Amino acid sequence: HRSLKDISLIAARRITGLFAAAGLAGDDLGLVTALTIGEKDLLDRDLLTSFSKTGAMHIMAVSGLHVGMISLCLSSLLFFLKKKGELLKVIIILAGLWIFAFITGLSPSVLRATIMFSFLQAGRLLKRPGNEMNTLLASAFILLLARPAVLFEAGFQLSYIAVAFILAFYGPLYRIIRIKNRILDWLWQMVAVSLVAQAGTFPLTVHLFNIFPLAFLATNIFVIPVSFAV
User: Fold this and answer.
1) Taking CA 165 as the corner, what is the angle to CA 162 and CA 171, rounded to the nearest 5 degrees?
2) Which of 163, 149, 148, 55 is nearest to 110 (CA)?
3) What does the alpha-carbon distance between residue 100 and residue 103 come to, in Å, rounded to a whole number?
4) Which one, of 34, 31, 29, lies nearest residue 60 by Cα?
5) Of 13, 66, 96, 107, which has fewest CB within 10 angstroms of its CB?
C-alpha cells in the first residue's frame, strides 16, 4: 500500500535510471539529475559544497524556475491555440506541470510553484486575477493541510520566504533605478531579485547551513541563464 509520495519517488528513480541508460555516469549523472528532477544524492560532496559556497544551490532545488521554463516551452509549442482554444491550452500546460511535479518527488518548492501557477491560470480564465501574495499563502495552506510536517522542512521554509520577499520587495527595489538599455535593465532585474531573495533567506541559511555565499550576485547572473539553456 504505497502512498502517492512513494509512487512519485519511484517515478523519480526511474527517470534517474533513464539518464544512466543513456550513458551518463559519475558527476555528469549527478549534475543532470540534480538540475532536472532535484535529486542530489548522486552528487559528490565536494561538488555540492562548491555550489553551496557560490550561492548556486537553488538551481538544484526543483522550483519556480523549472515550472516557469516548462510553462514557457509548452505555451510556445501551443501557440496555435488562440482564444477559442485557451481553455485547452491551459489544461495541457497544467497537466504538464503536475506530471513534472509528480516525477520530481512532489517536493514542497515545486508544489508551491505548481499550485500558484494553477491558481493564477484559473483566475485568468475566469477573468478574476488574484493577488500574488494571497496565492502564495493559499498554496502554503493547501500543502500544510495535506501534510502539516512539511512546515519543518528546509525546502518549504526557504522556498516560501524567498518568494514572499520577492513579491513584497522586488517591485519597490527595481523601481529605484530606471535603466533604458534592455541588457542592463535585465541585469538589474537579476540583481534586484537576487538581493531581495537573499535578504529574506539570509537568517535561515546561516542558521541551517552555517554559511552565507558572498558571491551570490555574480553566480546568479551567470548560472540562471546557463541552467535555463541547459
Assistant:
1) 130
2) 163
3) 5
4) 34
5) 13
